[in-house]
Amino acid sequence: MKPTLARLGLALAACAALVVACSSSDTSGGSGQAPPKMEPLSALGNGEGELNLIAWAGYAENGSNDPKVDWVTPFEKESGCKVNVKLGNTSDEMVQLMRSGQYDGVSASGDATLRLIYAGDVAPVNTSLVPNYATISPFLKDKPWNSVDGKMYGIPHGWGANLLMYNIGVVHDAPNSWASVFDGASKYKGKVTAYDSPIYIADAALYLSKTKPELGIKDPYSLTSTQLDAAVELLKAQKENISEYWSDYTKEVQAFESGTSVIGTTWQVIANTIGSENKVQVNTVLPKEGSTGWSDTWMVAAKAAHPNCMYKWMDWITSPKVNAQVAEYFGEAPAQTKACDFTTEKDFCDIYHATDENYASEIHYWTTPQKQCVDGSGDNCTAYDEWVDKWQQIKG
Amino acid sequence: MSPPGRLRRLGLAFLLVPPLTWLVVAYLGSLVVLLVSAFWTTNSFTGAVVHTVTGDNITRVLTDEVFRTVTLRTVGVALVVTVLCAVLAVPLALYMAKIASPRMRLALVVAVTTPLWASYLVKAYAWRMLFSPEGPLSWATGYSPGYGLIATIVTLTYLWLPYMIIPVFAAFERVPGSLIDASSDLGASDVSTLRMVVAPMVFPGIAAGSIFTFSLSLGDYIAVTIVGGKTQLLGNIIYGQLVTANNQPLAAALSIIPLFAIVLYLLAMRRTGALENV
Predict the structure, then answer these.
(1) Nearest CA of chain A to the CA of B266: how many Å?
(2) A391 and B47: CB-CB below 8 Å?
(3) Phi/psi at A156 (5° precision)
(4) Facing B46 at nearest CB: one of A16, A93, A118
(5) How far apart are CA B195 and CA A382, in angstroms?
(6) Which residues of B touch A119 (CB under 8 A)?
(7) Confidence of residue A385 (pLDDT cuts 50, 70, 90)
(8) Considering only alpha carbons, which residue of chain A is nearest residue B224?
(9) Which of 1.10.150.120, 3.40.50.1100, 1.10.3720.10, 2.60.40.10 is the CATH number of B64-271?
(10) Between 20 and 30 A from B73 (CA), which of A42, A47, A158, A188?
(11) Which residue(s) pair with A40 in the sheet?
(12) Residue B240 to chain A, least CA–CA distance (Å)
């Protein structure tokens, strides 16, 4: 018995040593470094016949949700690229999926883009290969979340704000403030919902920046430890009234339709889906304190197996007609300025302030919090991994 | 050694090498790499793993309050699920093995194993519907526990019940009818027979089933997101650190907890002698 055990132990140790020695070592450290040097695609070739995308729900519809809502099948016919879509529920999931190297591209929000760029998971894009890029809203180009050192790392898709949604049958007083889910949430005790991601801490910080100005919160993604703790206290108090947190958008649809949740943060596409199924009546509002939101960018994987198909897709999705379709289905402002001529609702762009640069600058887009404050106010801010730990403490 | 004997040994080695390689390199080896990575750290911005050895993760796992709370909650859930499964499985298995007619026995075996063919998610979402505040349970009884720990425990019990019933059923079947007859001939009542003759023979089966239910509940992170409302279990914490924070070393350090719990459980089972006759 003893000699066999010893032999087994030796074998195990040998295997471990072998595997550890063979694994590649990455000794990069510090966030002040430059992204890995990479060249964008120089010329567009023929499509490779397939395309693997990571996308937000509602961004790459192929008729399976609603047969009338389909802009993937026409793309497949025109380009010959068969599209496989993996839905990402949160930016964190998308970063993790891109790391696997099995996808060609991703629709990344601002809290994923920089992580992908600095990890070398995405390559700069050659914007001259995307003809529709020329007419994209200029205030979306060369922004801090989609470009580094003057190089664009993606093609803007669209942008919008996180909204407050409520069940009209239960919530009668037409709320217009985030207080309904924070300080006033006990009114709907056990029926409030919130987004299940640490980035939601920014929503609490935004609310505190207006209700507790003495904390000195200027940017909800640049929080010192004290400010972060205040936001965490608010969220712990909110948790008492929460029914459940959502990240899968179908879960929020189902929660509202079954009456488990009656008020909470949402995306317009969820309200549109609930409205089309007509089981409950909901309303959405952009509260008076302002809101967090997203500005999404299509990015190409650094080691994409099908880069030509990805470039073709990026040109397709930002073409006027298709960008209008996506924007209307999802409920966001299209990045393509010419899309406003193709929306079925004639004043869609006005409602969503699509070409209003000032309005766009009022939304606090999802950004990865870093030690060096993302608003440039110093380097004593809390980084995203601290937010993750706090989020787990909030959920308890 | 004569040539035929050597050939035979060579043949045996060829037969054993593939599964042994898989077991040692792929299975045990990957477990060991996982445990080793718990001592590494990450570049906090990009999330890339950095191979510098540090004990920080282990320290955090042992001292952080939220990890302690969630661990206790998870172990508690696993134990309650095990006990509930045992309480439900033993009478049913006894009936199936000793009392039911052969046709009834077949029907019950089919009924118990059929849910295993259904997808996990389908079953979990079915329970989500049942527990919904406006769902069938609330309509029938006027009360629903809602989404939370109770719903999670009930759902997990339902999911793992077949894994408990089958070993217990097999154990009951192995009890010879003649022993029960002999026991009653000697003057023992039914309860005494069950307690002193049948139970010791069936206990290994219950232990085997409990290993399934305990370990499966300990690692589960899906059922709780579907019916658990705002609760989180250890699996969710590990998932959060791995996917949300991109902190693979801390996730590996956290996964040592369920590993440890299972080893402790198995040692406890071994102590009771339950693993000798399985």
Answers:
(1) 19
(2) no
(3) -60, 140
(4) A118
(5) 61
(6) 46-48
(7) confident
(8) A244
(9) 1.10.3720.10
(10) A188
(11) none
(12) 8
pLDDT tens, position by position, A119-143: 899 999 999 999 999 999 999 998 8
Three-state secondary-structure class, residue B245: coil
Apex CA B152: angle with CA B148 and CA B154, to 5°? 120
Domain ranges of chain B: 64-271
Write the CB contacts of A365 (distance below 8 Å, at least 6 apart in sequence).
A109, A110, A145, A159, A292, A293, A294, A295
Say which residue the tokens 């003809």 belong to: A131
For residue A282, list its beta bridge partners: A167
Question: pLDDT, tens digit, for every residue of A151-183?
Answer: 999 999 999 999 999 999 999 999 999 999 999
What is the DSSP secondary-structure string of A258-317? HTS--EEEE-HHHHHHHHHHTSS-EEEE--TT--EEEEEEEEEETT-S-HHHHHHHHHHH
Give the contacts of B147 (CB within 8 A, at least 6 positions apart).
A243, A244, A260, B128, B131, B227, B228, B229
- Cα A76 to Cα A47, A73, A122, A306, B157, distances in angstroms: 10, 5, 23, 14, 46
Q: Please, are residues A169 and A222 in contact by the beta-carbon 8 Å criterion? A: no
Q: Do B245 and A16 touch (CB under 8 A)?
A: no
Dist CA A35 CA A118 (whole Å): 4
Chain B residues with CB-CB distance to A239 below 8 A: 230
Domain limits, chain A: 50-160+294-360, 163-290+370-395
Domain A50-160+294-360 matches domain A163-290+370-395 at the CATH topology level: yes
The span from the CA of B205 to the CA of A325, in Å, is 60
Q: Do A95 and B25 touch (CB under 8 A)?
A: no
Q: pTM for the full model? A: 0.82
Task: Give the residue, A228 or A360, on which the prediction is more confident.
Answer: A228
- Contact in structure between A106 and A298 (CB atoms under 8 Å): yes
pLDDT at B39 over 80: yes
Q: Which of A20, A25, A260 lies nearest to residue B33, judging by beta carbons?
A: A20
| Element containing residue A322 per DSSP (H, E) | helix A320-330
Residue A26 has pLDDT above 70, yes or no: no
Q: Is the pLDDT of residue A24 over 70?
A: no
Dig out the tokens for A175 from the structure.
Answer: 């709320």
* Interface probe with A: pick from B45, B131, B149, most Cβ of A within 10 Å: B45
Q: 2.120.10.30, 3.50.50.60, 3.20.20.100, 3.40.190.10: which CATH number matches A50-160+294-360?
A: 3.40.190.10
Q: What is the pLDDT of residues A354-377, one digit of tens each?
A: 888 888 888 898 888 888 888 888
Q: Which fold has domain A163-290+370-395?
A: D-Maltodextrin-Binding Protein; domain 2 (3.40.190)
Measure CB to CB from residue B245 to each of A29, A370, A385 and give the nearest one. Answer: A385
Nearest chain A residue to B52, by CA: A27
CA B215 to chain A, closest CA, distance in angstroms equals: 22
Token pair recorded at residue A46: 């023929």
CB contact under 8 A, B32 and A16: yes
Residue of B nearest to A391 (CA): B240
DSSP state of A58: T
Smallest CA–CA distance from B233 into chain A, residue: A396
Residues of B in contact with A370 (CB under 8 A): 45
CB contact under 8 A, A90 and B135: no
B247 and A388: CB-CB below 8 Å? Answer: yes
**Is residue B229 less than 8 Å (CB to CB) from chain A?**
yes
Contact flag A389-B146 (C-beta cutoff 8 Å): no
